[in-house]
Amino acid sequence: MARFKFAASHNNPSRQTPTSLFRIFSGAAAVALLLTPSALAQKKVTAPFVDQETGIAFQRFFGAASGFGFGIALPADAAATSFIGQLTFPLVKGAGWGGWSLTGDMEGPLLMVAWSDGKGGVVSSFRQAFNEDDNPPEVTGTFSLKPIAAATATNNTFLTYTFLCEGCLDAGFGLGPGVASAEMGWALASTAVRNAATSAGVLAFHNTGFGGFQADLAAARSAEFDAWAALADATPLAAAAGAAEFALDQAGGSGDEGGGSGEDSDDEGGAATGGGATTGGGATTGGGATTGGGKNSGGATAGGNDSDDDSDDD
Ligand code: HEM
């Protein structure tokens, strides 16, 4: 979905840096170049990133304009269902939330969000959205989360949250184990979470940015995973009272994916196997990006909100 807004948001001059403005207005050729599928694909893929505190080697998506980052590290065993994740994003006077989706969609798949408790701690919860209007409620299930304190910190302006997500990879959640490359999603808000002390805190729209990115999961695997996972807290976080069971029958997505099967890569065509793209041969993931070519629905209403979907282009 968010890919489709890529072109639209490039038409919003207020969102452009001088450099990209120049590119856009310097001629049709430049515009065409920007919007070619390979150009799109190259810009939103994960790249290697090593956490300085722990040495954990992630494949990380980073949006340059939003400052949002999400890194993922996986066990060498392709059948394993856990991963280590790291969310890094700016806060505005301590306010805001950031999160990831196991697919490029919001509705259906397993989501996770994190925010500051205002006292130096991070609050997080698993969510599942059933529409794009309401705060996605907190959910529980066979997945659980253990913070990695050594690489978790927050202050008024930034939040870093590193965690072991156990049992989080399941096709029923939107992304199963053993996938070489998959589209995942991200979202970032600068607005305060209501009832921020509880993991059931109420989120407002991700006004800073959101979208999908291609995660090179094959490259995210490491034989060192178990050592890194051992850094995590012993006890998983508990959900707040009232959290509902994750609805497996909803994880297939929003229904606006044009017949998507609900798999993580349902709208990626052949691109799901294009893991090599992160090393620079980006054209191979272009298959997925071409699905965004003619799409313009919703751009007018959301164009101002998803600007960061193209933020990683400079
Ligand atoms: C009150 C909370 C939320 C509201 C009101 C909301 C609203 C929306 C809306 C309206 C869109 C569609 C925009 C468009 O296509 O033009 C969207 C997309 C998206 N949202 Fe949210 N959202 C919320 C929370 C979340 C959370 C918690 C996550 C992830 C942790 C998330 C991830 C995404 C992603 C990845 C997309 C792009 C793919 C898609 O359209 O499904 N959202 N959201």
Automatic annotation (TrEMBL):
Region of interest: Disordered: 249-314
Top-level taxon in the UniProt lineage: Eukaryota
Domain Cellobiose dehydrogenase-like cytochrome: 49-226
Pfam families per UniProt: CDH-cyt
Biased composition (Gly residues): 252-262, 271-302
Gene3D superfamilies, sorted: Cellobiose dehydrogenase, cytochrome domain
CDD domains in UniProt: CDH_like_cytochrome (cd09630)
Name under which the protein is recorded: Cellobiose dehydrogenase-like cytochrome domain-containing protein
Organism: Podospora appendiculata
